Amino acid sequence: MVTFVDHVTLHLKAGNGGNGCVSVRREKFKPLAGPDGGNGGHGGDIVLVSDPQTTTLLGFHRAPHRSSQNGGPGMGDHRAGANGEELELPVPVGTVVKDADGVEIIDLSEPGMRYVIAEGGQGGLGNASLATTKRKAPGFALLGTDGWAGDVLLELKTVADVALVGYPSAGKSSLVAAMSAAKPKIADYPFTTLHPNLGVVESGGTRYTIADVPGLIEGASEGKGLGLEFLRHVERCSALLHVLDCATLEPGRDPVSDLDVILGELGAYPVPEGQVPLLERPQLIALNKIDVPEARELAEFVRPELEERGYKVFEISTASHEGLRQLSFALAELVDRARREAAENPAPAKIVLRPKAVNESGFHIEVEGGSYGDVFRIIGTKPERWVQQTDFANDEAVGFLADRLAKLGVEDELFKKGAVSGSTVVIGRGNAIVFDWEPTLTSTAELVVAPRGSDPRLDGGRRRTNVERRDDYYDLMDAKAEARAELMREKEAGLWNDEDES
């Protein structure tokens, strides 16, 4: 049974915006008193909140699909639709949010941080809001847009002051249980610990947290064992405590060789940019299980060699609690020092700025080759949103969309790209809206594609006069008479006769 989850994929769907309302106010002696359709409500956002009371992503593992409330539709008498309720998702402190491609979006490393991960759709305007001096009674309203939908990755990196690292069955979980009130699972077989265990330790006037990272083995940084899955939980710790087993019975193992293997794996693990490498952080060594006589002798034998390397070494026993008091005070000293340094030299806030270009038009056109000619695809936030807001069953709404696109400069850009009347134009990606483009009439000289003095767009609706119809009829009769005369000439020349015809 899963009890701890530190990475999960969320499938999110923010609420859609409500549609605007088409309504006309009716009063006594005034059956058409003006438009009074209200706006649609906005869809609810989905917000991630770092909550100290949440310690696992298990809830999202069991229910990864989350959606917020849709906005209500607008109503008559200028009544706006209700906004969709915002959905808050509490996540543990230390959760890193990434997009579907694995690019980091935000690091929720502090309690109470909030981030809108999925924005709700925009509510559509009612016909009362669309009324102008030239459009006094709009017979259409704008539709609500869809809320954001997609996948995000949540990755939990435990926030602890000290990380306990070492081989499986080195006694790390027992040390957490002995130094704090935590009750981790403890058993005499490798990989008993399947997820990090947190414990709170009070030493003097200092309170700090320790994390028991599942046992590391050689090759853990390359994916062997469980180490790669949980080495991420060491990233945020300010100090490391190497727990070395002095009572192991496995051949070829001793505290010094175990330490070398662990150091190699910690050095091979890449930390995020801007963080201190794991091997450059303060480190202590705890020689565990000295309650066993042979283990005590081994600890006394290897201690000078470890101290020569510059480590501060403690001989401890989680069974008899020997040496734990001195170890807890030493760890508290390291934590206090790290906190003072962090206060004096705070890490700069990570701010991502994406300014828009000064000459940004809000859209661009991509020319794609097709079987029946070029396809002109319009990509941009505004055009794509406007298409979503348009009711294509309403001719007035379609005309309003054409006016908005022309005002944005879409038609001018289409002409520059080589589009002509009848070209296929697509707005948006994927299953987008497809048009057979018919440019609107303008007075711009560079938009005239016909010979000077003519415009082919004006020829389609012109009716023929009676004189033109009579001339066309006479031309048809003359053509038939000429065809009959040609047949008679061929017959007289012997090219065919009546018998061939039969």
TrEMBL record:
GTP binds at residues 166-173, 191-195, 212-215, 288-291, 317-319. It comes from the Bacteria. Residues 160-336 form the OBG-type G domain. Its cofactor is Mg(2+). Keywords: Cytoplasm, GTP-binding, Hydrolase, Magnesium, Metal-binding, Nucleotide-binding. It is found in: Cytoplasm. Mg(2+) binds at S173, T193. Monomer. NCBIfam families: Obg_CgtA, Obg_CgtA_exten, PRK12296.1, PRK12297.1, PRK12299.1. This is GTPase Obg. It comes from Herbiconiux gentiana.
